[in-house]
Write a structure and sequence with these properties.
The chain is an alpha+beta fold. Helices cover about 25% and strands about 35% of the residues. It is built from 16 helices and 33 strands. The strands form seven sheets. It has an eight-stranded antiparallel sheet. The chain has a six-stranded mixed sheet with strand order 2-3-1-4-5-6, with helices on both faces. Strand 4 (about 115-120), helix 4 (about 125-140) and strand 5 (about 140-150) form a beta-alpha-beta unit. Helix 12 (about 520-535) runs antiparallel to helix 14 (about 600-610). The longest helix is centred in the C-terminal third of the chain and has 18 residues, at about 520-535.
């Protein structure tokens, strides 16, 4: 653990006037984690020999992909150049930049008084940064605009400083120019944080009130809760109460992150730190809840933030049915670290027992699946992602459909699907191809603004179902990678949607069902039956593969019959030769899944159902 410099004040006695709470908002790959690394080095909380790139990114996936998934809080001591005697305490909360993790950003913003708006000097502001900037403005935070990567040959600091100044409402000369990689200008940025971001305001003698902005699960110590103290003081060994659940616990340990855990006697007004109560259930430390003292505690809770709502649903099934209890346990553990993960058990005739899991978006789905496979050693099939539909029948009954197999049979009056308001930022030369793409995806143009001569912001209303497949991939390829996308839910609309079923040998395969727009149903059916004809091996009998809407078949392919006798060439010789061939055949059969009387190989399920083909947008960096 790095030694904290001796001049840092005791956590429990820090004067609120010397505290600054801020976070960094930026697009993926604009240098947020690198800037955090330089700040850790400059303030001396991490020794040089322990320093590594992306120090605050603790997960392997974060480090490999170069993205931040989980917010991290860290306490930095800093003596500004204009007043070397007054050591200030800077509480920095690192935030993700991807649209799927906006809920993490909103929690971080609620715990801060100011934010650094970090923009790549070679790329300019992106759609998701814009969305996070508006979030910060809604929270009345002080915004410090900063251009990063000014050492790049392609950097255009003057051009993008003007763009930033227009957005934030300041002078282009006020936009700081730094290089997080080389450390150029980072000390001036820390000085500006001290000078411009207001100190936290709270009542020192009032009953304690602290807001939970994050919680993680530690297998040895239980739930570690991250809090920002608003009023009063929390002390070690006192009993605390969670105001929304009413649960009471003893504070076994309290302290700060510098950036490793450092125990203290207590936390005062404006301080950011962690609490450990020994509780093993993270649901008792609800994010957005208020912590107060059990004895003479506060009466009124702080305004929390909204719970994240899942936008995309996908089924997760273990390849080996006996792994189902392990998958349940793994999801339980992941939910301890991810408040936005929701799941419920479901069964499929083709895939067996699994879970219907709700995600915030495609990258969230991709990250969760990779963590399950990597951290818990599971082999999984993820069904193609789909959204939640509301179906009204002619008799007035209402159904909520998260899985195509739940789509009701019978006379349907109306189907409602979720819609989003999408914001696309791109160079002006691509306006035509972007509008063409959005119109083919049933989009409605809301408006268009020019941010500068060669950059435009286009706003569309789009069905969410059209975005969760390959929309982002298509957008990137049509704009040579220059466009950026952000979206937020805006309600629902009625649509002509139908359920396309796939029949193998006359039997419906529930796992292959899909809900699609009436105009696209035929093309979808033709594409899927052609794919299945290639993937399903020939059987001992002829197998028709059909796509149908209700009882009407819209596409058909036929798999011709075949018979193979693996022992045909063994007309004599040792029995072990025959046994070897039979064992080989048995291994092949193990990898098959039985659907009715047709053997469907595992590869076919993975190729058709997995989100890899359709959800490439989750893999890329938005």
């Amino acid at each position: 653990m790095p030694a904290i410099p001796s001049h840092v004040p005791e956590p429990s006695r820090t004067d609120p006037a010397l505290i600054r709470n801020f976070c960094i908002i930026a697009h993926i790959d604009h240098g947020k984690s690198t800037l955090a690394d330089r700040m850790l080095q400059l303030t001396g909380v991490v020794e040089q020999r322990q320093m590594r790139a992306q120090y605050l990114d603790r997960m392997d996936i974060e480090r490999e992909r170069g993205i931040t998934i989980k917010s991290q809080a860290v306490r930095l001591p800093w003596a500004p150049s204009h007043d070397k005697d007054a050591t200030h305490i800077l509480n920095m909360i690192d935030t993700p930049g991807h649209v799927d993790f906006t809920y993490e950003v909103s929690r971080s913003l609620a715990a801060c008084e100011g934010t650094i708006l970090l923009v790549d000097a070679a790329q300019g502001i992106e759609a998701q940064t814009l969305a996070n900037l508006y979030l910060a403005m809604e929270n009345d935070l002080t915004i410090i605009p900063v251009l990063n990567k000014i050492d790049l040959p392609a950097a255009q600091p003057e051009k993008f400083a003007e763009e930033l100044a227009n957005l934030v409402g300041c002078d282009p000369d006020d936009v700081l120019k730094v290089s997080a990689k080389t450390g150029l200008g980072v000390d001036a940025l820390l000085d500006k944080v001290v000078a411009e971001i207001p100190a936290p305001v709270g009542v020192k003698d009032a009953p304690a009130r602290a807001m939970i902005f994050d919680s993680v699960y530690d297998s040895y110590r239980g739930v570690v809760t991250y809090v920002r103290v608003i009023d009063g003081q929390l002390n070690k060994r006192e009993r605390i109460r969670m105001m929304s659940t009413g649960a009471t616990h003893e504070l076994l340990e309290i302290g700060t992150n510098s950036p490793e855990m450092l125990a203290a006697d207590g936390l005062g007004v404006g301080e950011v730190g962690y609490l450990i109560t020994g509780v093993k259930d993270v649901r008792q430390s609800k994010v957005g809840d208020t912590v107060t003292s059990q004895h003479k505690g506060a009466e009124e809770a702080l305004g929390g933030y909204k719970d994240p709502r899942p936008m995309v649903f996908s089924g997760l099934y273990p390849l080996d049915g006996s792994d189902y209890p392990l998958l349940r346990e793994a999801l339980d553990k992941l939910q301890l670290n991810d408040a936005a993960l929701v799941y419920e058990p479901e069964t499929s005739a083709a895939l067996g027992f699994g879970f219907r899991v709700g995600f915030l978006g495609l990258l969230h789905l991709d990250v969760i699946r990779e963590r399950l496979e990597r951290e818990f050693n599971l082999d999984l099939i993820a069904t193609a992602p789909n959204v939640v539909y509301r179906v009204i029948m002619e008799d007035g009954t209402e159904h909520t459909v998260t899985n195509p197999s739940e789509f009701p049979e019978g006379k349907i009056d109306e189907v409602y699907e979720p819609v989003v308001r999408a914001t696309i930022l791109a160079p002006t030369e691509f306006i035509g191809s972007i509008m063409e793409l959005c119109q083919t995806r049933r989009g409605t143009l809301l408006g268009m603004d020019y941010l500068s001569e060669d950059r435009v912001e286009i706003r569309y209303t789009l069905p969410l179902a059209e975005i969760v497949f390959d929309f982002f991939d298509q957008l990137k390829s049509k704009t040579r990678g220059y466009a950026s996308l952000d979206y937020e839910p805006t309600g629902e609309q009625t649509s002509s949607l139908v359920k396309v079923d796939i029949l193998l040998h006359g039997d419906k395969v529930d796992a292959f069902s899909a809900i699609t727009h009436k105009d696209q149903a035929y093309a979808y059916g033709v594409r899927l039956v052609a794919k299945l004809k290639e993937l399903i091996p020939r059987q001992a009998f002829e197998v028709p593969v059909q796509a149908a809407i209700g009882s009407r078949v819209i596409a058909r392919e036929t798999i011709r019959a075949i018979r193979k006798d693996v022992l045909a060439k063994c007309y004599g010789g040792d029995i072990s030769r025959k046994r070897k061939l039979l064992e080989k055949q048995k291994e092949g059969k193990k990898r098959m899944k039985m659907v009715g009387s047709v053997e469907v190989p595992q590869e076919a399920f993975i190729a058709v159902l997995s989100s890899d083909d359709s959800a490439g947008s989750g893999k890329g960096k938005k």
